[in-house]
Amino acid sequence: MGGEKQKTGIKPLYFTMISFVIFRILIPLYVFGPKFIHVKTQTSLPILLLPMLFSFLFGQKTTAQDWPALQHFQAANAQLPVPSPQEGRVVFMGNSITIGWLQLRPEFFEGKPYVNRGISGQTTPQMLLRFRQDVIALQPEAVVILAGTNDIAGNTGPITLEQIAGNIRSMVQLAKAHGIRPVVSSVLPAYDYPWRPGLHPDQKIPQLNTLLQQMAQEEGAIYLDYFTAMADARNGLPKAYAHDEVHPTVEGYQAMEPLVEAAIQQALKK
């Protein structure tokens, strides 16, 4: 679930070339140019060359980034038919824990109107940006939101627990505004993050879950409590549920499945 390194727009090679232009061309021209080159103008030659330099510096193409991964499910969304009134479609919005569910337990999704829209490593601001196309546009009856652990891990930078809860609240409000019943999942237990140790998720996750539960009550959403059912004495996941203490095993997902099914049924009855 670790975040990807951001790409920069101007490569180090450009700085080498810029230095060459300045120190090997412009400065020598400024010092020695008048002795060998006669320009019929009061403007100095280096100034005449400045537009060329600026064109070189700022004419380079920067590397575009699809930060929220809007293209990730673009083709799959286009191929998904409009749901029938009796279908009862449910979208699972989340990160690697959500997409890992489909990969390790495909039989849980087979034959059900469940659409998995998890992307590994994602944080709540990224999910919020793609919520309209990956949830609302699919016209589900309900959405199960499982998010927040990558935010605590700092995958996309510093963020407070209140800001994480606020992003999830925004997803809940967007869902409600379009007649979609939201299910707010607690963040799964984690004692520590293997890719970024020492951030104390065993303390922060329970605090975030308290905020999420309160928010769900305020918004009239269903709160799905995975944490209480799965946490060990350390506020982490036992090895049987997650070998790396973060990503569920088959047994971990099997423990989650009856909980989410009950929450979905409760949401659809509202």
What does this structure look like?
By secondary structure, the protein is an alpha/beta fold. 50% of the residues lie in helices and 9% in strands. It has eleven helices and five strands. Strands 2-1-3-4-5 form a five-stranded parallel sheet, with helices on both faces. The protein is globular, with a radius of gyration of 26 Å. The two termini are 34 Å apart. Mean pLDDT is 87; it is low at 3-12.
Descriptive terms for the model:
270 residues; alpha/beta; 5 strands; 9% strand; globular
How does the SSE layout of this entry go?
Elements: H1 12-36, H2 45-58, H3 74-79, E1 90-94, H4 96-104, H5 106-109, E2 114-118, H6 124-134, E3 142-146, H7 149-152, H8 161-177, E4 181-185, H9 201-219, E5 222-224, H10 226-230, H11 250-269
Parallel strand pairs: 1-2, 1-3, 3-4, 4-5
Helix pairs in contact: 1-2, 6-8, 8-9
Quick summary of this structure?
This protein has helices spanning about 10-35, 45-60, 75-80, 95-105, 105-110, 125-135, 150, 160-175, 200-220, 225-230, 250-270, and strands at about 90-95, 115-120, 140-145, 180-185, 220-225.
Number of strands: 5
> How far do the termini sit from each other?
34 Å
What is the averaged pLDDT score? Answer: 87
The helix count comes to 11
Beta content: 5-15%
Low-confidence stretches: 3-12
Which structural class matches the secondary elements? alpha/beta
Query: Biggest β-sheet, characterized?
Result: 5 strands, parallel
Question: What does the overall shape look like?
Answer: globular
Instruction: Tell me roughly what share of residues is in helical segments.
Output: 40-55%
Helix and strand pattern: HHHEHHEHEHHEHEHH
**CA gyration radius, whole angstroms:** 26 Å
Strand order of the largest sheet: 2-1-3-4-5
